[in-house]
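Ticket #4471: structure export looks truncated?
Reporter: QA, pipeline team
Priority: medium

Steps to reproduce: submit the single chain below to the structure queue and open the exported record.
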Amino acid sequence: MNIFIGIIIPFIGTAAGAAGVFFLKKELKAKVQKSLLGFASGVMVAASVWSLLIPSMNMSEHMRRLSFLPAAVGFLLGILFLLIMDEIIPHMHLDHKKPEGMKKSLAKSTMLLLAVTLHNIPEGMAVGVVFAGAVTGNGGITLAGAAVLSIGIAIQNFPEGAIISMPLLGTGISKKRAFLYGVLSGIVEPIAAFFTILFVSEIEPVLPYLLSFAAGAMIYVVVEELIPESAEGEHTNLGTIGFAIGFVLMMILDVALG
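Actual output as written to the record:
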């Protein structure tokens, strides 16, 4: 797969999901949102394990018993990075009335957009570092394996695009503007991936750390935001079922095609 196409696929998934504002008359039902959030969580967790953490440890086999070290350090740094970003960047999550991060006088629609954009950064990094690994031939990462991660993230970006764009209609903005906001929330992914690949020669020595860093950042998003949002309100198992389907689907794609 052409590398440019590979890094743009996740963005296409977000844009396609955001286009739902033109075809759906009402906001997504709560049960549908729970299912989609659970599905996205499952995909991201599976991608973090099979596409990021395992290759990170494979690259560090020369460290023998300490081969886990880059994966562990990078993972924790990824968690810390998103934790700091959550505290600094003003944003608001769906169904939350109180904004998070630094206090700024921003419109609700802008803070909703910033919330999704913030959490799309690690996904873009993940695609970038995996393609960088494929280019350098490290850790047994192939272009096919990188493409699987890209497709997996695109699959989970589709419902994410709809989940961010549809509620924006409730803030009083037009369908075109809601679609644009949804698209803009995903543009950070190919940008992050592009710059990661651009500096592949410089980052090659620390590639195991970057892979696990992206995994940590993605897991932070899942644990801090996606899973809690899928469990809010009336108790339902739909989020759990969605998680299981997303996890198994991504695992199958990575093992069978990667």
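Status: closed, not a bug. The export was complete when the record was re-opened. Leaving a note from the reviewer for reference: The chain has a mean pLDDT of 82.
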